[in-house]
Amino acid sequence: MSRPLLILRPEPGASRTVRAAATLRLDAIAVPLFAVEPLHWFPPDPVRFDAVMFTSANAVRAAGNGLARYGALPVYAVGTATAEAARQSGFSYVREGPGDAAGLTAMLEGDGVLRVLHFCGAHRRESAAPGLMIERTTVYESATIDRPEGLDDALEQAPLALLHSPRTAERFATLVDGLGRARAAIPIAAISAAAVAAAGPGWARTEAAATPDDAALLALAARLCER
């Protein structure tokens, strides 16, 4: 018998992870802790940039039709899901990164890109990139859901919690403590070492995925959730 997975990322990513878990014959419960909300943004002049950068598929979706004016620029996307979202939005030249922002900026520097327009969310962790001029345009925010529906019931099932970001890890720890649940009863699988650190101590088990992407996180979960 295996543990269920507790998916905490916002939609539509939560449903995508649930479907991917099902292909691995894993049961998953989605209880998003945040809701993605598009923001009004002012479009910078595309002639000022050599490339566009996306570190989240949410940014592609939130920016919407305004991206059309940047269609002639090459796109650097953090990973597979973000690259696919960029292609679907109409970009023809898309470079797929290794799954994390640091690796993506290293790719940009390696390609000799100098001026980058980064479409991003209001909450982000910025990587140092001294060789790049990065202008950030905020197109969405992940708003906190004060009382995530079904979280307490989900914790009753002794799930393995999947943490897709450091911010999710921090919020989940706060909610678990607030509900009076014991951290020692909950194992967690995190997308990165930073997310493990953000969750804090006291969990039944903590481990980070081999690479910072959903496929690696689910592979780790498949191993950890087996009792």
Describe this structure in words.
Residues 19-218 form the Tetrapyrrole biosynthesis uroporphyrinogen III synthase domain. This is Uroporphyrinogen-III synthase. The structure is a single chain. Helix 6 (166-178) links the parallel strand 9 and strand 10. Strands 3-8-7-4-5-6 form a six-stranded mixed sheet, sandwiched between helices. The chain has a five-stranded parallel sheet with strand order 2-1-9-10-11, with helices on both faces. The protein has helices at residues 13-23, 57-63, 80-88, 101-110, 151-155, 166-178, 193-199, 214-224; strands at 5-7, 28-30, 34-38, 51-54, 75-77, 94-96, 115-121, 133-144, 160-163, 187-190, 205-208. The protein folds into two domains: 5-33 and 145-224, Rossmann fold, CATH 3.40.50.10090; 36-142, Rossmann fold (3-Layer(aba) Sandwich), CATH 3.40.50.10090. By secondary structure, it is α/β, with parallel strands linked by helices. The longest helix has 13 residues, at 166-178. The protein is built from eight helices and eleven strands.
